[in-house]
Amino acid sequence: MSDVISLEEGRRAFGANSEAYNDARPDYPPRVYDILRDQGAVSQTARVFEIGAGTGQATAPLLALGCTITAIEPDARLATTLGNRLRPYGSSLTIVQSSFEDSLLPSASFDLGAAAMAFHWLQQDSALAKVFRLLRPGGWWAMWWTVFGDPADMDPFQRRTQALFQPLSRTPSHAGDSNRPFALDKDARMAELKAAGFGHATYEEIRWNPTLTTRQVVGLTATFSPVTRLPEAERSRFLNELGRIANEEFDGKVRRNFVTAIYLARKPEELSRKS
Q1: How far apart are CA 159 and CA 13, in angstroms?
Q2: Could you give the CA distance from residue 118 to residue 269 in angstroms, rounded to a whole number?
Q3: 3-state secondary structure of 93
């Protein structure tokens, strides 16, 4: 069985080529931000902390909605790219280059906490407890992931290439006893939210079907942590084979089935006043 990438290693896995990571990772579906707006979790005055902001795939849309964001990013290389990319937002963005566990943030001070493609790299119980402390009474917590290959509806490219991925290391997003990816394991995630004290928890799966060029397929796959940790020669062979399949068997246009799972929960106002 392939090994599981540690939480500590995972936090360093994405910064080696931060510009390529920024270019290759797709934006999240607009429905994610519709959900946040519809529930009142974001507004022109919302104070937000974001865990694992990376190069800002979620940060930029939240800033565009008027939020003031404290972005927590443990990798210095990603934090630098994030700051350079989003410099036009000025004082609306504060970057804290730190792990979430070690970050020093004021309790009960934020309207929204968010984590996009990042929260599986944390110990769930302790991280959710800290999230809960940081939110104001009635504040919201949102976490979401895109699964690059819908397990309920595998596309032809995924079926063709899945054997290539089987020998690779696993991440916490595809580890454990459940056959479902971490993001889609609704019962486990909802139970953790409840145990942390959150209420009004909702869950939605957003399915979308982009068509990627061979370059996009290879670029995206190159950002996956099990691929980034391969020795250089082995990584090149792996990506070259993936590109060959995309070119020769799919004519360089690969339609993929992705699913973005979003969880949204609220810190109860009454409970927070008593605590």
Answers
A1: 26
A2: 27
A3: strand
DSSP secondary-structure letter at 226? H
Give how far Cα 12 sits from Cα of 7, 79, 96, 145, 150, Å. 9, 12, 16, 18, 26
H and E: helices and strands count for the chain: 12, 9
Q: Where are the alpha helices (DSSP H) in the chain?
A: 7-10, 18-24, 30-38, 59-64, 76-85, 124-134, 156-165, 186-195, 214-221, 225-228, 232-250, 269-274
Burial class of 106 by CB neighbour count within 10 A (0 to 12, 13 to 18, 19+):
exposed
pTM, 2 dp: 0.91
CA nearest to 85, candidates 100, 75, 99, 95: 95
DSSP-assigned beta bridge partners for residue 96: 72
Helix, strand or coil for residue 68? strand
Could you give phi then psi for residue 91, rounded to 5 degrees? -70, -5
Sequence-distant (≥ 6) Cβ neighbours of residue 187 within 8 angstroms: none
Judging by DSSP bridges, how do beta strands 110-116 and 135-147 pair with one another? parallel
Burial 215-224 (b: 16+ CB within 10 A, else e): ebbbbbbbbb
Residues of the chain with pLDDT under 70: 1-2, 5-18, 173-179, 271-275
Per-residue pLDDT of 192-203, as tens digits, reads 999 999 999 999
Q: For residues 207 and 21, what is the distance between their CA atoms, to the nearest angstrom?
A: 22
